[in-house]
Amino acid sequence: MEMKKIKILAITGSTRKNSSNYKILKYISEHIKGDFEVEIFEDLAEIPHFSPDLDTENPPKHVEVFRNKIIEADGVIICTPEYVFSLPGSLKNALEWCVSTTIFSNKKTGLITASASGEMAHEQLNLIMKTLEAKLDTDTQLLIQGIRGKINDEGKIIHEETEIALQLFINNFERQF
User: Any signal peptide, and if so, which residues (predicted)?
Assistant: First the structure.
């Protein structure tokens, strides 16, 4: 009898195709154990601007799809850049659509901020996810500064300490299940 795979929803905070954050999530999906199934959510740009007036029993289609993917996942990994000392607007917008729900409550969540600096965005993401009651652990949070020089165009991690940190992140995330 085949065991049920542990479903992980990986959300990239960047809407850029083949961004460093996407490459990190791809790396994680290729290096996580076989009993995990990682889906990278790439439709952040499709989610409409948050409006409390639209946050009803029947939210916009893309919001419903996003929420359902979170509900169906056993865990979530968010990997985001930092834009102007903050989270990218598209990621914050998507998370705002979750405030009126309990879909993140006690959901095992890993956070990675990979950017030039990233400290402010990492702090803000942590606060937002605590507000959404996500299950966070310091062992499943990672700040990767200067990401552009640590990953190549093909998505290979070319900085040994970063690869070690990512492997530790993966191991710690897997251990939660």
Answer: none
Q: How far is CA 23 from CA 7, 13, 14, 16, 151, in A?
A: 19, 12, 11, 11, 8
Q: Residue 110 pairs with which residues in a beta bridge?
A: 77
What is the model's pTM?
Answer: 0.97
CATH classification (class only), 6-175: alpha beta
**CB-neighbour burial class of residue 53 (10 A; exposed 0-12, middle 13-18, buried 19+):** exposed
Both tokens of 73, joined, read: 């996942």
pLDDT at 91: 98
- Cα separation, 161 vs 142, in Å, equals 12
Structure tokens at 171: 């191991």
